[in-house]
Amino acid sequence: MKHNHKIALCAAIATLTVGMSGCADDKMEWGKDPSHGDVTVSELPLQLQEQISRYEALNTYTNFTLGVGIDLALYMSDETYRNTVNANFDEITVGYDMKHGAMVSNTGAVNFANVDALIDKLKEAGLTVYGHTLVWHTNQNASYLNGLIKPTTIPGAPGSSLIVGDFETGLNDFAAPYYAEAVSLSTDVAIGTQSMQVAVRSDAAGKYDQQVNSATFAIETGHYYNISFFIKSDVPGKVGIDLNESTSVANPYPWVSVSGTGMELAPTDAGWTQVTVDSIEATADDNLIFRFLLGAEGGVTYYIDNVAVTDLDAPPTYVNLAGNGDFESSDLTNWTASNIGAGVSVSADAKYSGNYGLEAISSSTSSNDWDLQF
Fold first, then answer.
1. How high does pLDDT run on average in the chain?
2. Between 24 and 326, where is the model more confident?
3. More confident residue, 193 or 362
């Protein structure tokens, strides 16, 4: 710090000395002695300590709100740190704990516990809070956000499945061989109204630590089979399958496939993903189950829907796209009559097969083909 009397002395010398253009100050060069290490407070000259101690709190030198960025955990746990902040500042912003990644879970739930505790402490000290950025380039919970924007997969009509895997009428013999209470029904679905929910215990650490068995299905020698299902999880997880050590298939430990990429365990997240196992070869006639392997990650809750086992070599099946084309509902459901003339109805007398057929009677005044339509 330059003092007024020193400046005045320089000016006086300048006026008395012809040609003198200025006054040089000797400045103390501060540096770190490589042989010594950091200087501690106890090593400061007493005079300097006294000078520092005479300063007031920092916020007394301002006429505006003086804020500081702090570490939440340190403020809550370190009394010296907390007292220094409280004594010198009017307002705080936490470095991380109010950002999206710190507060929002993979399910979208917001945890206010740490921030609420901090605010209570700050209120006691009379400090206010300036919140962190609403949106930033990092520190977001990517798993949750990516799940929100992931396209919703609407399964197509499945082929003829050898098991009932839509869970619309219950679990249908899907069960866990142990830790059975992990398996239940859920309304979080890929299609329909119910799915299977599997809650993996927190200490699971290997894929076989949580298994779920499928319903039984029959296979024929020489036929190839496909397994497919939809799966999502509340937090990132992994799923695989095996054929329960069967000797009736060429490979009882097939890899699973997502979008054509094969892997031992397929990743799961908050969006529905279709997983398939293609071309399972039957080497003998048998009744089988397959197992979902879900124990690679502990504490994950999975949702599984629309499970199908398809015989790729079964005779083709045909689906009538004209709903109620046999009129066995005994009404005109899915059909609309217009210009009905004498009438259009469903009658047992009009049947070709089954119990009912469509009876259409044209008006005696009809002369065009469109005078009676349905």
1. 83
2. 326
3. 193
- What tens digit of pLDDT does each residue of 238-275 get? 999 999 889 999 999 999 998 888 899 999 999 999 99
The terminus-to-terminus CA distance of the chain in angstroms comes to: 101
Amino acid at 38: D
pLDDT digits (tens, 9 = 90+) for 198-247: 999 999 999 999 999 999 999 999 999 999 999 999 999 999 999 988 99
Q: Are strands 273-281 and 224-233 parallel, antiparallel or unpaired?
A: antiparallel
**Rounded to two decimals, what is the model's pTM?**
0.53
Question: Do the beta carbons of residue 233 and residue 268 sit within 8 Å?
Answer: yes
| Helix locations, the chain, DSSP H | 4-16, 46-53, 72-77, 79-88, 100-103, 113-125, 142-149
Tell me the C-alpha distance between 38 and 46, whole Å: 18
The C-alpha angle 159, 228, 269, rounded to 5 degrees, equals: 140
Task: Tell me which residue of 110, 188, 96 sits closest to 144, measured CA to CA.
Answer: 110
Which of 172, 194, 198 is CA-nearest to residue 305?
A: 194
23-26: long-range contacts, CB 8 A cutoff, minimum separation 24: none
d(CA 210, CA 177): 9
